[in-house]
Design a protein that fits this description.
alpha+beta; Neuraminidase; 4-stranded antiparallel sheet; about 15% helix
Length: about 500
Amino acid sequence: MAEPREPLTERELEIVRLVSTGAGNKEIATKLYVSPNTVKVHLRNIFTKLEASSRTEVTMIAVRNGWITLLDSPLPMDQQATSGVPVASSGRISRAPAGAIAPAGAIAPSGAEIAQPARQPQDGSVSSLRMTPAIAAVPVAPNPEALPRLAVWKRLALLAGVLLSLLLIVTGTASQDNTALALDPLRIGPTQPRSGLLLRGEVSRWSLRASLPIARARSAAATVGDRIYIIGGEVNQAVSGDVLVYVPVTNTWLLLNAPKPTPVANAPAAVLGSTIYVAGGTTRDGQPSAVMEAFDTRTQQWRSLAPLPYPIAGQSSATFGKQIFVFGGATDQGITNASLRFDTVAQTWQPIAPMPTARTLSAAATFDNRIYVIGGYNAGHELNTCEVYTPSQNVWSACQPMTLPRSALGLVRVGSNLFAIGGGMSGFLGFNERYDPSTNRWTAFDTPITNNWQSVAVAGLPTEFYVFGGYSGSERLALSYVYEVFVNRVFVPSFQSAPSQNKTP
């Protein structure tokens, strides 16, 4: 039960932003894909926590705390780019004709309007969109106001709860083991939501960006140049073949008119040059696939390549040289430790040394001359396993396990570290993890989702990485986040001297 001055949850912050636009309960319920009764419950908790008596008062508290920035008046689209109005974390989505991506400058700037789905198509595609007024979203943070000092008995009860939670995590209780056996590794079930906060004085590097046009999970993500491609996944309870492009510099989304010929979910993407490779995955009939298709981002054309030796879904993938590597996954025969290599020049598949641990829903990333495969799921349990493959020697070795078991997670390299995001099929995870290969050490960093966070799409750029969609509990998300790895950037201006004038004496 909510108490006065208790921090707001991420969902409650989201509702506060919508309330500030003047949206009614039914409109909020439609936007968030929940029932009006659920919105009423959240609003009751919001009013209690903020000690507010009206929607207007809620809006004023949100403005005062910096959760939103209200625009004084809507601007015409042709004035937004030069208006200088500070707006964060909103954007527009446009459709592009087949064969060309509009240049970044041609996509409308963020801040004026944000596209929201007018309805949910039944075929899994993104279709009709309508534009609604935007307000600026705030970086993810709990209620910044100081919390009241708890009574002694409450502090003792809280301490006891923390100690009990740590004991359950370390020992892995028998009850958790028994319920985990019923989990479907490719179909995440609902879990109980919890919440977590940053340490006092700690500043989060997470920020919200323009939301996905529609909530999705189990999608593939790939970075090509300065753009991020989101391919397929689960949308509206169906497997989709949509191809979306996110442009970080303008914080905008583009839906390409070039869907994947074979719609799949639970399939990773691998990038070599300007081509994105997607192999296997779960098809619309719920079966693993052996299809491999490649998308040329320059021509926006798909082509079929040599199929996998066997149907597979939930595998992890990484690239090295001109080769694509596939590790583990779920097949018709069960979860496997088999590993494969695809030569993009010879267009052939070859088996390589199998992983020491059979698993599905793991994550992989290349760091220098080795490929790290972490986490995963097998035999009703999530894994904290970390194993390293050396392509030049075709051998596996062990690395330091993660602090907590994770599956259906994302892994990305930025700078000199690997970042593991999400997981928690078996329950709540209150942090993400960072791995330093030079010290073989994992350390925790904060998470913007105050519940478990699985089946996310993760993509990296040189100074930050992005996380899109996924599941939190049983809720499919449309949220997009960026984590700034390098926040202290120094820009050194360059000077060019004027050409010298050679004068003759």
